[in-house]
Amino acid sequence: MVTMNNAEKILARVDNLPLYLHAYAYHLNMRLERILPNDLLDIAHENQLRGVKIHVLDGERYSLENMNDSELSAFGDKARQLNLDVHIETSASDKKAIDQVAAIALKTGASSVRFYPRYEGNLQEVMSIIAKDIAYIRDTYQNSGLTFTLEQHEDLKSHELASLIKQSEMESLSLLFDFANMINANEHPLDALDTMAPHITQVHIKDALIVNEEGGLGHKACISGQGDMPFKALLTKLICLGDEKPQVMAYGLEEEVDYYAPAFRFENEGDNPWIPWRQMSETPLPEANALEERLIKEKEDAINQIKFVRSVLQQIKKEAIDILNT
């Protein structure tokens, strides 16, 4: 909540919050190649956003992964012409995936890379493998000029992620906080934020309904403002991270309506639970007769999320003004 102690910090930051368009807000349209990477730059520019967050696979045949060097360079040139920052994302942490995403980031002039691990095994074994992946990133890319973020992505708990960052000894590595992904690790948003707070520099904003499952929790993403995520409280806390200057450098607008993720961590699971294999995140396509309407709605939802987040920020700003004027 807004208090006398944080009100001035909020007023100094809230109007210049670095909001980024996230490609997943157009996931279905990009799967069907209706919206392509260059289109995202136009949408971000039209909506006065700071930049874009885009996965190497977004856009299928026309994705960054499938671009040649001149096409990647042209994408980066367009972003710079529009004064947009670019963040590149991948859904793995192994050497092959990291080398690919880093190469794309460097060729496009992107500033940051997001990754998350997907390994199967007992927790302690999985944590050891991830630590080795991070060591490779540190030894290979710590002087590349890129920053790296590890996203909390449904299977690891907040303290486990924080320990990986602390052990990494990599200054350019931090955490990306997703509004809902801690649910599947049997955690709740504000508790997870408090645990991860010292290490968070980037955010994915979305809303979700919490689904009670046997001994655990799943989440179903939904229209922002219609779910169970404490939207205003999360944004307030995130804005206030960092004493002298803002700690969070990028807020990705990641509307994910109808995306579902099951429980991965459970009550009474012990200290070395089994972490199951999982596929990359994907929202199912609707039936053919509902497809066109759904694609139109996805585009509307994405723009509406931008408006909703800005309206919440103005509510937070008003509370700060009211507190300072009392």
Give me the secondary-structure topology:
Blueprint: H1 4-13, E1 19-22, H2 27-31, H3 37-46, E2 51-55, H4 69-81, E3 85-89, H5 95-108, E4 112-115, E5 121-122, H6 123-141, E6 147-151, H7 158-168, E7 173-178, H8 189-196, E8 200-205, E9 207-213, E10 216-222, H9 231-239, E11 250-253, E12 260-261, E13 274-275, H10 291-324
Parallel strand pairs: 1-2, 1-11, 2-3, 3-4, 4-6, 6-7, 7-8, 8-11
Antiparallel strand pairs: 5-13, 9-10, 10-12
Architecture overview:
It is a single chain. The protein is of the alpha/beta class and 326 residues long. It is 41% helix and 18% strand. Helix 1 crosses helix 10, helix 6 (123-141) runs parallel beside helix 7 (158-168) and helix 9 packs across helix 10. The protein is globular, with a radius of gyration of 19 Å.
Question: Which characteristics define this entry?
Answer:
13 strands; 41% helix; 326 residues; globular; 10 helices; three-stranded antiparallel sheet; TIM Barrel; eight-stranded parallel beta barrel; alpha/beta; single chain
